Amino acid sequence: MFVTIISCFVCQCLGFVLRINAMFFICYINCFSPGVFGDTDVMKSVSVLEGDSVTLNTDVKMQRDDQMLWMFGPQERRIAEIHRQNIYIDATNTIFEKRLQMDNETGSLTIRNIRTEHTGLYKLLILSNRGNSYKRSSVTVYAALPFPVITRDSSKCSSSSGSSSSSGSSGQNCSLLCSAVNVSHVTLSWYKGNSLLSSISVSDLSISLSLPLEVEYQDKNSYSCVLNNPISNQTQHNINITQLCQPCLDSPLIALISAAAGSLLIVVVIGIFCIYRKCRRPDQEGKCYWF
Question: Which fold has domain 149-244?
Fold first, then answer.
């Protein structure tokens, strides 16, 4: 019984000593090894339009002996640095081409006339006698958007005409196409007034995008086509349905008109040839008679 009590007392004492040692170790690390627990991994997301300028702020004020390094990409290549108020910009990095500027008081990095190839991860490493830390910024650069182009899908003209006549509708169906070329990370949408009718999104690089819309000839509603990405948009307003959707001509009528035009052209060519031949043999007085 006595041995058991002594054993429990010894275990409690050892546990107390271990807890004291652990607390002392943590205090030592925090007080005498700054930077180990002071490291910060704050990710900031920045979206910017191609051609604009963007500033990646450090949110600190530099001291004389502080050192800041900016790195870019998965390989964390150094692109800019400041130490003791001396600024170094990597002139060998042809991607940025003199676009970088560093603030000598805060170490904030500015990228002027930014391009899509500047999309990526930027890492800031701060070294000081107060502790070391780092921050990360994820920059996404979006290309400038073109205006969407609206045309009539002529390949569906005959089928739309046939369906409307067979159904006995007073109007005629018309298929419109809203298109954009060389776009990426965008959404293309059709709107009727303020109501979304349909949309399609793409994340691939530099592709052509088209979205069809079936309307009725002489439709008086207001339609618009919108091309947008997360930070900008381009809208095609005031779509003239009557102008775009002229009634389709039946295929037999088109063939008849084409044949008649071809025959008339042949007759004209033969007539000109005969007149030319006749004028090459004038009468005795040197006159040329057309008939």
Answer: Immunoglobulin-like (2.60.40)
Are the folds of 28-142 and 149-244 the same?
Answer: yes
In whole angstroms, what is the distance from residue 173 CA to residue 164 CA? 6
Residue of 130, 213, 206 lying closest to 178 (CA atoms): 213
What pLDDT is recorded for position 252?
53
* 109-111: strand order across its sheet: 54-56, 109-111, 100-102
Which token pair is 19?
């807890």
The residues facing 67 across adjacent strands are: 83, 127
What residues does each domain of the chain span? 28-142, 149-244, 249-291
- Integer Cα distance of 35 and 122 in angstroms: 20
Q: What is the pTM of this model?
A: 0.63
Q: Which position has the higher pLDDT, 273 or 48? A: 48
Strands, sheet with 207-216, edge to edge from the N-terminal-most edge strand: 149-152, 173-183, 207-216
Any idea which fold 28-142 has?
A: Immunoglobulin-like (2.60.40)
| pLDDT tens-digit readout, 141-168 | 999 999 999 998 877 665 444 444 444 3
Contact 159, 179 (CB under 8 A): no
Question: What is the tens place of the pLDDT at every residue in 194-204?
Answer: 999 999 998 87
